[in-house]
Structure formats: structure tokens, C-alpha cells
TrEMBL record:
Gene giving rise to this polypeptide: recO
HAMAP family attached to this UniProt entry: RecO
Any one cellular-component term (Gene Ontology): bacterial nucleoid
Classification of source organism: Bacteria, Bacillati, Bacillota, Clostridia, Peptostreptococcales
Organism for this UniProt entry: Serpentinicella alkaliphila
A Pfam family annotated for this UniProt entry: RecO_C
Function of the molecule: Involved in DNA repair and RecF pathway recombination.
Any coiled-coil regions, as ranges: none
Listed name of the protein: DNA repair protein RecO
Keyword Acyltransferase tagged: no
UniProt keyword list: DNA damage, DNA recombination, DNA repair
Annotated family: Belongs to the RecO family.
Any Gene Ontology biological process: double-strand break repair
Length: 246
């Protein structure tokens, strides 16, 4: 059976002497593993479309345990990402996030569109990298079913205007009366909260040029990172380890 689907390559590893084993996030099948036969051969017609980040139209053939790439037509290679190590590494982080939260047979159109759009935005050197990354993280959580509660206290429902903390474990804001139920709750300034809500609802292409201060970026990044560690089944990201070493 042949299946035609758009897909973004999340990972490419060596399989046999000449073959590549791909992990592809596809629109129609969710995340799948697929062998690209002969793709390591420099003359292979598949070579350009099987690199990580590549967005292609794939024709896949379903075998007993794996898919085989029968054709691949590159739509967007995001090659400009490779010109900047920071951007490339953060883009790799997005792929790791998506890979951790997607399954075979489980489609997620909104996440698929978000990933494609974000990789394209990150290829533009003028896009504000921090803003785009924070927006991706919060939307990724939303589309994966882990929307953080940012409108009222997760414990008592209070809608107080200020003095919030954020509890990754409880899944959202804690009002000043409820801070004590999670001693690991993180202080969240009113500005950071406002930014988080804004990034959650705005289309990512509309915020790509929005500059945010280091303070806001660090505070929001800390909250989202902890939230991701608690809710996504992944404790470390190779790409982020690399960034810390750069
Ligand atoms: Zn409360």
C-alpha cells in the first residue's frame, strides 16, 4: 500500500551501508520510522529530501514493521538554518520536542503546521529568535493537550490581578493564598504572564519581529522549561546541552 503525505524529517541515522533510517513527522500518519534505501549514496535521488528539517511530499510504502520511502519531493529544505549555529541548534530542539510528543497513527495538524511555519520563520535572520522560541513552546504545549492555566488560580479559581506564581506540577497559576501548595512554584511577573497569554493566542508569524527583554525571556523560558520537563516524557534535550556548551 502506498501512502502520499507531507512530512518533516525529525531525524536521519545510518541504517545499512547505504540506507538511512528516518523519523518523519507526517501530516497523515503522525510520527513514523521509514527506511530510505540507498539514500546515503551521493547520487541518490532521495538524498536532498532526507536531511533533518526537510519538508517534503513523501510517498511511503508500508512494510511489516517499517515504512519505506518510495519517493520524496522536497518542498522546503530550510537550508538557511544551517548558516547560523544558534538557530540550527534551537531548530534541532524544536524537532526533539515534537519527536517526544508525537506517536505513530496520531495526527496533529495544528502542530504540523506550527512546526513548518516556525522553521521557516527561524530561517529568516531578522526574526526575533527568543520570541519565536517561547511562542513555539507555549503553542506546542497547547496543541499537545497541556495548555497551562493562565487565567485564574489552578487551586482555588481566584482571578486576583497580581502576585502570581506558576506551578508546573499543578499546571498553571497559583494565587498568593495558594503559593504554599507547591514549594517549587516559580514567581511569574505580571508582564511575563501577559506575554505568555499573548504568545499563546497570536499567530506565530505575527510575533516574529516582536522584541522582548532579557528579563521577560528568561522568566518565561524558565516557567515553560520546567512545565515541559514535568509534562512531556523527556528529561533532557541534546540540542539544549549543546547550546549551553557554545
Ligand atoms: Zn488560589
Amino acid at each position: 500500500m502506498l501512502i502520499k503525505t507531507a512530512g518533516i524529517v525529525l531525524k536521519n541515522s545510518k541504517f545499512n551501508e547505504n540506507d538511512s533510517l528516518l523519523v518523519i513527522f507526517t501530516r497523515k500518519l503522525g510520527k513514523v520510522s521509514a527506511v530510505a534505501k540507498g539514500a546515503r549514496n551521493p547520487k541518490s535521488v532521495l538524498l536532498s529530501g532526507v536531511q533533518p528539517f526537510c519538508y517534503s511530499d513523501f510517498v511511503l510504502y508500508k512494510g511489516k514493521s517499517l515504512y519505506t520511502v518510495s519517493q520524496c519531493d522536497v518542498k522546503q529544505s530550510f537550508y538557511k538554518l544551517r548558516e547560523d549555529l544558534d538557530r540550527l541548534t534551537y531548530a534541532a530542539y524544536l524537532l526533539e520536542l515534537v519527536s517526544a510528543e508525537t506517536r505513530e497513527g496520531q495526527t496533529n495538524n495544528r502542530l504540523f503546521n506550527l512546526l513548518g511555519k516556525t522553521l521557516l520563520i527561524m530561517s529568516n535572520p531578522e526574526a526575533e529568535l527568543n520570541t519565536v522560541l517561547r511562542a513555539f513552546e507555549i503553542k506546542f504545549l497547547h496543541y499537545s493537550g497541556y495548555t497551562p492555566q493562565l487565567n485564574d488560580c489552578v487551586n482555588c479559581g481566584s482571578t486576583q490581578q497580581t502576585g502570581w506564581k506558576f506551578s508546573p506540577k499543578e499546571g498553571g497559576l497559583l494565587c498568593s493564598n495558594c503559593h504554599s501548595i507547591d514549594y517549587k512554584a516559580i514567581k511569574m511577573s505580571d508582564y511575563t504572564l501577559k506575554l505568555a497569554k499573548y504568545l499563546l493566542v497570536k499567530d506565530i508569524s505575527e510575533i516574529q519581529k516582536l522584541k522582548i527583554s532579557n528579563f521577560l525571556n528568561l522568566e518565561l523560558s524558565k516557567v515553560l522549561k520546567e512545565y515541559i520537563f514535568v509534562h512531556i516524557n523527556k528529561q533532557s534535550f541534546k540540542s539544549l546541552d549543546i547550546i549551553e556548551k557554545i
